[in-house]
Amino acid sequence: MTTTSATESREIGNRIVVAGIAAIVLILAITAILLFMNLPDANAFNARVEQVFIENDLLTGNAEIKLLEILAQSGTAFSDTLSSYRFVIFVLLTFATALLVAAIAFLVMLIALTRRMSQIERKGIEVNSLLISRDQKSVYLNNFEFKLTKAAIETLSVLAEARMDDEVMSGAEIEGVISGRPSSDCDEAAGATRIKRLRDTLGNQMVSELLVKNIARKGYMLAINKDVIRMV
User: Fold this and answer.
1) pTM here?
2) 174 vs 191: CA distance, rounded Å
3) CA–CA separation, 167 vs 153, rounded Å?
4) Are 222 and 211 a contacting pair, CB within 8 Å?
5) C-alpha dihedral over 61, 62, 64, 66, to 10 degrees?
6) How many CB atoms lie within 10 A of CB 134?
7) 85 and 35 in contact (C-beta within 8 Å)?
8) H helical segments located in the chain
9) What pLDDT shows up at residue 207?
10) Which of 75, 112, 148, 201 satisfies CB 3.0 to 4.6 Å to 46 for a cystine?
11) How far apart are CA 155 and CA 93, in angstroms?
12) pLDDT level of residue 40 (50, 70, 90 thresholds)
């Protein structure tokens, strides 16, 4: 039921995003149409000059004819300028549409990434496989290789074995298993130091903090499914 609800919510979210992008494109398209419809006709000036020629057929002097020719040339220049303005406006509207769509797409991706990170923080790392190779001093976490020190491999191995037995180990118990001494003779701080060094060796703070869980007043454990752990 939960999976179905999550899938339905994701589908609804995708529909909303698509509808939002379509609405933006539609609004900008309507704006462009209204803008171009209300722009003056490029040939309006030429039409007025032509009307002047027709209505003033008595203007036969050289000066009058020269003036009308200048007016006709001005109308042609106005028409060319207005055509270039139309093209510039079209390019700007297209660019604005592309920027808005890209901004929404990036915003949706950022929200999805934030939600995913929140899920990881709440649930821990989703580990599909954890392979510990003591000989190579390597750990393969979801097929990503981590090179560890010998001490870090020992600490992680102890935690992995405890996790397969569904046990939570204190710092003293971790130190006792690694050193071969009774946990009663070991210091809690020594095991905590080993955990800190393991986290430092893993490097990625998010990975190390979420992989190795610290349970208050109990100890440490791996926050993964024990069935995915393999040791060689």
Assistant:
1) 0.46
2) 6
3) 18
4) yes
5) 160
6) 15
7) no
8) 2-38, 44-55, 62-123, 150-164, 171-179, 188-202, 205-211
9) 61
10) 75
11) 61
12) low
Nearest partner of 151 among 101, 89, 196, 96, judged by Cα: 196
Which range, of 56-60, 100-104, 109-113, 198-202, averages the lowest pLDDT? 56-60
Per DSSP bridges, beta strands 144-147 and 138-141 are antiparallel
Report the pLDDT averaged over residues 15-27: 78
DSSP state of 26: H
Tokens for 161, please give them: 């074995």
Report whether 206 contacts 120 (CB < 8 A). Answer: yes
Mean pLDDT computed over every residue of the chain? 75
**H or E element, residue 222:** strand 219-222
pLDDT digits (tens, 9 = 90+) for 139-181: 887 777 878 888 888 888 888 888 888 888 888 888 888 888 8
Structure-token pair, residue 162: 């405890």
pLDDT at residue 60, as a whole number = 60
Count of C-beta atoms within a 10 Å radius of residue 148: 22
Which two structure tokens, joined as six digits, stand for 102?
């890209």
Q: Which residues are 221's β-sheet partners?
A: 213
- β-strand 130-133 against 138-141: which pairing, if any? antiparallel
d(CA 49, CA 56): 10
Q: How large is the angle between the packed helices 44-55 and 62-123, nearest 10 degrees?
A: 160
